[in-house]
Amino acid sequence: MKKSSHLLTLLLFVVSVAVGSAQKITGSWKGTLKVQGMEMPLVFNISEKDGAFSSTMDSPSQGATGIPMDTTTFTDNTLTIVFKKAGINYSAKLEGKEFKGTFKQGGMEIPLSLQKTEKTVPGNPALVSSEQDLNKLSALEKGTYKYSVEDYFANPKGSSFRFSPDGKYLSYKESDANGKQHVYVKNTQTGKAKRVIEQKEELIRGYGWLNSNRLFYTMDKGGNENYHIYAVNLDGSNNKDLTPFEGVRANFESLLREDKDHIIVQLNKNNPQIFEPYKLNVTTGEIKQLFVNKDASNPISGYQFDKDGNLRGYTKLKDGVNMEVYYEDGKGGYELWKQLNWKDSFGIISFNYATDYPHDAYVLSNLETDKAEILLYDLKKKKTIKKIFSNEKYDVGGLGLSKKNNYAIDYLSYEGEKNILIPVSKTYKKIDKAVKKQLPGMQYYVTGKTDDETKFMLYITSDKVYGIYYIYDLKKNELKEIYNTMPQLNPEDMAEMRPITFKSRDGLTIHGYITLPKAALNGEKVPVIVNPHGGPQGIRDSWGFNPESQLFASRGYATLQVNFRISGGYGRKFLESGFKEIGRKAMDDVEDGLKYVTEKGWVDANKAAIYGGSHGGYAVLRGLTKTPDLYACGVDYVGVSNLFTFMKTIPPYWKPYLKIIKEIWYDEDVAAEKAIMNEVSPVFHIDKIKKPLFVVQGANDPRVNIDESDQIVKGLRAKGVDVPYMVRYDEGHGFGKEENRIALYKSMMGFYAKHLKGKVQEPIKH
Fold it and tell me: Which CATH superfamily is domain 17-120 in?
């Protein structure tokens, strides 16, 4: 099995085909590799231009499509594909309408035949609305507005500012005229900047500094979330894929500040369902596995490394729902230290490096209290040394340490109605004082600092300010603005985001937010867009600048965001009160929120839309079927429609947690819960949908398969309902590319204009 697993991880091709018979070989060719009882389909898509061939490869079982190839020749009726880095060689003769040949890799020789096929895309493209129809939908929004959709959703000209560890350089993303976000590095002394990472077709999902000479960045393929980690020198040289394994997801585990040449990553290269830790040389790409996740049926779900890269312990998922915590035994091994239920929270934030005793750690725990608290804990003696931080109303979780000052606590934080940072050290008290004096009413986040802790990067924001970067100079006690990410949006024109609190129909205290356009503040009842959040478990809506809510407000719509039961941050009891209540009491809370803001006189309940993504998309479909008369229309964005198929199409690395997912949602193996799943799966209640629906989906979504959207669209179309359906084939779980994002919101605003402004319209029949 090792050989076949190795084969799966190395299948990344690029084909460049020498001049041959274009008519014979252009198009798509499909074959299946059979290794030790395993089957892996492959599709090669060959095209010709100016006498030269090029090609891409799809590996459906790995969720990979459009992978560019390496070298290929087609001579004397023989096709030869070579991928040197993976040690792959495929050679085949064209016999009639079939390539017959041998696939070679790592000493293996496997027969592989390819037959001509039609290139397919995920889902049913026949259901997808044409660009012409979507443009017509966008055009339904009439009127002149001060700010365009682009003003809210185009990529910021500059963003993601970072210090190099030595403070000599400043890195940032900068958008070009086509919306591509490249990474630049600027010398802080000379002011000279150089582009070191170029964004091409795939998005740069994240980046940062590895050391003072080298940066990393992450990318996937079309939103499939199989991230690769790349590294590049600050001058743009030695750009290297550090995790060149196709169909494998790389998770960044930790930097090693004492070891500038290595990082720790987690990869699911040996088994797609589980992750194992590796030490990775950021210059050469040399990789070394640090620990083996042996038991796939009871996998390790998390590793605990210290600042020097030593594995101090790990957490194992046992029987799908329990947790076993292992800690070093002092003999080079690990012993069972604590047994927990998956609902328990006990995690190490950081070891306490301020003492020579190696077993003190700051932990986040809810074992003794409903609200998560920070404790200083002796891991060897298994006892609390002292309570560091807690809050009566909210979970806490933020803690910052100062390496320069012997790892003393810099700050503590939690999220209530707003994000609250409590300065502890003299340094952070100075930062806090400077911000409050110069920028009253603003929230701030320290996004980075130099190794000598004399310069700090701050991100300043509020409900009306998208985000401005500042540098705080400790020596000068100076706070200086360096970049306004969205200068075109005047805060005076933005809408207020107001925290709200109300009681649910069964007596729970529910929190949320209402963003009100100026007309509502002047006493006018306005249309409202109810916006349930994704997740749903442990996720919550937060106070701050929300471009969606601001766009909606600019068009005269209020936005309601409810942190319904199962949302995070409000304690364990509130979180767990939503288990087995998704689509039921969780939806009741959303409905009760709408009732509350209606009774306040802010909104017109007869003009209420429901819109959301992921679980929020599910909530849209559930809302239109559970309470068919409550909403005027809905927008379902990458939402679940069928709980049965949803659980069968989750990513492989979610499968070890399927029992937990079933404890949060529902278990079809329990008769009563299967009945509930039928009740709350919108696809089985399409006949109840009476109001207009707009569906949006990323074709490569690994979390909510495109089949979830196809099912609801197909079902409604069968009943003669016209459902606009937007699909983007280069996106996954949400739209990351600027052009797709802008197209989405333009169509959405046209949809709202049609169904919220003026008389509410019924769905259009064919």
Answer: Quinohemoprotein amine dehydrogenase alpha subunit, domain 2 (2.40.128.120)
